[in-house]
Design goal:
Strand order of the largest sheet: 6-5-14-15-16-13-17
CATH topology of the domain at 5-70 and 100-173 and 268-346: FAD/NAD(P)-binding domain
Number of helices: 11
Strand content: 25-35%
Helix content: 25-40%
Largest sheet: 7 strands, mixed
Distance between the termini: 21 Å
Length: 370
């Protein structure tokens, strides 16, 4: 199927990774992205050994590492600041760190630049208004143009319009009862790994660069309240009142509403088909997870590589799609379910989770070949 012409809907982490993997295998790739500014939501992201391995396979590891901050273990603390454990992270590529903290804009820049350098064509401010056809997919675009493709990949995130077109009766994303607050700060010399704090509030510090880190705080948000942009800094400061002292100490530095990123936590996992005809879903469009295990982006990145691998191997798209789902299903389900379980434990809906043990188990799962 190496002669196939492929359209990717969504130029985020999953879509860009898929485009790089597909171009490396010789496919022709067009991409569309609804945001005309191609902006990035969020402050930073943790990526673990399986992502280091994936970036090595994609051939972009040096660009990727230079954009972030590598570390080889996770420090786990009690809510009062007592150091509970240092959990080594298993390396999957000996020459490189086991984990990387990276600013979302930096990751976006690396993936976008590498996708375009690989030959992917990206159109901004465009959506797919209809998908139809049999042996090929006829796509009508919001700018009035149209195109025909052998395969279409929906990588358009949690609220995927592609998923809604394919499976109008599929479950909708579910709010978990929690939200996460994030803010960037200058990195102190002591933060050279993920500092994760156990307790009813998930919180921690993540190094992103020599001079940058971010703070995250996961809080109960009954009723899924709306927080207006104006006053967001004050709201985050208020949330930090019940945080561990080492985290609460940063409250006074939170003054700019625009520097605060708040996100209600939602999840979705499609237990049924991940494709229909010649259209297939990947990443958050099919298995969006909460951030408790730091693997949401990692699962999307792996999806792109596996899908490209199966498309290069198969004689027909549906054969590739079935093999792709078979390789990804249990791994992605584990991440979604275990991440949600940690959140439920923080809300008191399940017994407390041993964060160090959960982290070790997750590392073992993602160390397995994709």
């Amino acid at each position: 199927m190496r002669e196939a012409r492929i359209l990717i809907i969504g130029a985020g982490i999953g879509g860009l990774t898929a485009s790089i993997a597909l171009r490396r295998r010789g496919f022709e790739v067009d991409m569309i992205e609804r945001d005309p500014a191609w902006s990035v939501y969020g402050v930073g992201i943790i990526q673990q050994a399986n992502v280091i391995r994936a970036m090595t396979e994609l051939g972009i590891i040096q660009d990727y590492l230079e954009a972030g901050f590598g570390f080889d273990y996770v420090d786990v603390f009690a809510p009062d600041g007592t150091h509970l454990a240092q959990v080594p992270s298993r390396k999957l590529v000996d020459a490189y760190p086991a984990n990387l903290g990276i600013a979302r804009p930096a990751l976006h820049e690396v993936l976008g630049r590498c996708a375009q350098a690989a030959g992917a064509r990206i159109r901004l401010g465009v959506t797919a208004t209809s998908l139809s056809g049999g042996d090929e997919v006829h796509v009508e675009f919001s700018d009035g143009s149209a195109g025909r493709y052998d395969i279409v990949i929906g990588a358009d995130g949690l609220n995927s319009t592609t998923r809604a077109q394919l499976f109008p009766d599929a479950p909708r994303p579910q709010f978990t009862g929690q939200g996460v607050w994030r803010h960037n700060f200058p990195r102190p010399a002591s933060v050279v790994s993920l500092h994760a704090y156990a307790g009813s509030l998930g919180m921690g510090l993540v190094p992103l660069a020599d001079n940058l880190m971010y703070l995250f705080l996961t809080t109960p948000e009954p009723g899924n309240p709306h927080y207006a942009r104006s006053g967001l800094a004050r709201a985050m400061r208020d949330k930090l009142r019940d945080a561990a002292p080492a985290i609460a100490a940063y409250a006074d530095q939170i003054a700019d509403d625009d520097a605060v990123v708040y996100k209600p936590l939602e999840w979705i996992f499609l237990t049924g088909p991940w494709h229909k005809g010649r259209v297939v879903l990947l990443g958050d469009a099919v298995h969006a997870t909460t951030p408790h295990l730091g693997q949401g982006a990692g699962m999307a990145i792996e999806d792109g590589i596996v899908l490209a691998d199966e498309l290069a191997r198969a004689a027909e798209p549906e054969e590739a799609f079935a093999a792709y789902r078979a390789r990804r299903f249990e791994r992605c389900r584990y991440i979604v379910e275990q991440s949600k379980a940690i959140g439920d434990s923080q809300l008191g809906l399940l017994p407390p989770v041993d964060q160090a043990k959960a982290t070790r188990e997750m590392f073992e799962v993602v160390a397995a070949p994709i």
